[in-house]
Structure formats: C-alpha cells, structure tokens
Please model this.
Amino acid sequence: MGMADPDVLTPGTSRPDRDVPARRRRHLIDPNAPRPVRDPRAEARSLTRVQQWVMSTLAVTTVLHMSAGLILAAMFLPEHRLSAEIGLNVIAGAFGVIAVAAALAIHKRRILSWWLLLGFLPTFIGLWLTLG
Model:
C-alpha cells in the first residue's frame, strides 16, 4: 500500500514505456502556442480612429441641429418676408458646409473637396419646405 501503483497516472505525467506526451492542463500557459504580442501602436491607431468618428459625429450632429433650427425659424417667421426666409435658409446651408468641413478636418482629410457640396443640402431642403 505504501508504493505507488505503476498503472495509475497522475495528471501531467506519462508512462516511461510509451511515447505519449503528457496532457497539459487547460488553465496553464501552453509554450507551444504563445499569446499574440501586443502592438501598442495598432491599439492607439484603432482608439484614435474611434475617437475621430465619435468627435466628427458629435460635431456634425450639433451643427446640423443648428441648421435645422434656422430652417424652422424661416418656416415660422411672424412676418412672411421672402428675403428673410431665403436668408435664413442660406445661413442654414452655410452651417451645413461648416459641419462637413469640420468632419473632414477631424478625419484629417482635404477640406476643399466635393463633399462640401453635401453641406448645401439644408439650404435646398429649407427652401423646399419654406417656399413649397
């Protein structure tokens, strides 16, 4: 009883007469499959990318809300003066262009691009709602 039974194996051991590798426990580190090396530059790039998207989304949303407010102001003027309605809608479009330019600047893109034309969309929508 004092001797260990040669047929009973303890975990992590193998019999000397067989070429069976010892099973590794799952909770231990496997030297044959090391963890991937952390790349701090890649992590910083992905974090920066997310921050840029969040910041540009907030900037564009905020500025476009102001643009929408100007369109509503043009729609509900107490005195219906055509020049004031058109002027407020043009200012709304200018804020739309500023919103697109801000998003391009945040993403470090060229500011003078065809995307700026998208900023005039509030002007056309506002004119259609106000004059239509």
Q: What stands out?
A: The mean pLDDT is 85. The first helix runs from residue 40 to 75.
